[in-house]
Design goal:
The complex is a heterodimer of chains A (110) and B (115). With 110 residues, chain A is mainly beta. Chain A has no helices and 11 strands. In chain A, strands 2, 4, 5, 9, 10 and 11 form a 6-stranded mixed sheet that branches. Chain A has a 5-stranded antiparallel sheet with strand order 1-3-8-7-6, with no helix packed on it. Chain A is globular. The termini of chain A are far apart. The chains are: A mainly beta (110), B mainly beta (115).
Chain lengths: 110, 115
């Protein structure tokens, strides 16, 4: 059973702080990793994608991948109340079959 | 483009009834995914298609569930007979492969309540 694990939270951070979200996965053969954001009552939307070890930055978001440790993380710098949402870690286990974690709820306090 | 279109947006039915959920993917996309989301189990992949052909249906919970994609612009997910434990939000997503990875575009979802 291929699994993606996330801390369900909630993770609460003050406005302007760095939010750190973590994810581990079980399938060593996985090649592509995604972070989706889902606002309450809405559908998931892709915010970051990473496939190489190391860091990938896009604006206030940084994704980090460590394949040896089977670990993916998402850092959100200068967190804003509008970042309050559930963040889903997703892993492509092959053939574009995507397994999602249960998600981490993030609250950014103004 | 209008994005992925799902219908109905809300469905309330009684146990034992047949339920059909519909999805229109984004034009030109060659992958279509059906997911189910609940508080307890999160977002679960049920089945996905490539060029209208089912690739992996290992997530379909049981024989009561079936999915079809008769053409590139339409897919259905059918539950017969429905049970209260099928209550969830069902999402359809579509993608277009341009390289070694794909971005999935999700529809607004169908909220199903089985009484």
């Amino acid at each position: 059973q291929k699994e993606v694990e996330q801390n369900s939270g909630p993770l609460s951070v003050p406005e302007g702080a760095i939010a750190s979200l973590n994810c581990t996965y079980s399938d060593r053969g996985s090649q592509s990793f995604f972070w989706y954001r889902q606002y309450s009552g809405k559908s998931p939307e892709l915010i970051m994608f990473i496939y190489s070890n190391g860091d990938k930055e896009d604006g206030r978001f940084t994704a980090q991948l460590n394949k040896a440790s089977q670990y993916v993380s998402l850092l959100i710098r200068d967190s804003q109340p509008s970042d309050s949402a559930t963040y889903l870690c997703a892993v492509d286990t092959g053939g574009f079959k995507t397994i999602f974690g249960a998600g981490t709820r993030l609250f950014v306090k103004a | 483009d209008a994005g992925v279109i799902q219908s109905p947006r809300h469905e309330v039915t009684e146990m034992g009834q047949e339920v059909t959920l519909r999805c229109k993917p984004i034009s030109g996309h060659d992958y279509l995914f059906w997911y189910r989301q609940t508080m307890m189990r999160g977002l679960e992949l049920l089945i996905y298609f490539n060029n209208n052909v089912p690739i992996d249906d290992s997530g379909m919970p049981e024989d009561r569930f079936s999915a079809k994609m008769p053409n590139a612009s339409f897919s259905t997910l059918k539950i017969q007979p429905s049970e209260p434990r099928d209550s969830a939000v069902y999402f359809c997503a579509s993608s277009f492969q341009t390289g070694a990875w794909i971005e999935q575009f999700f529809g607004p979802g169908t909220r199903l309540t089985v009484l």
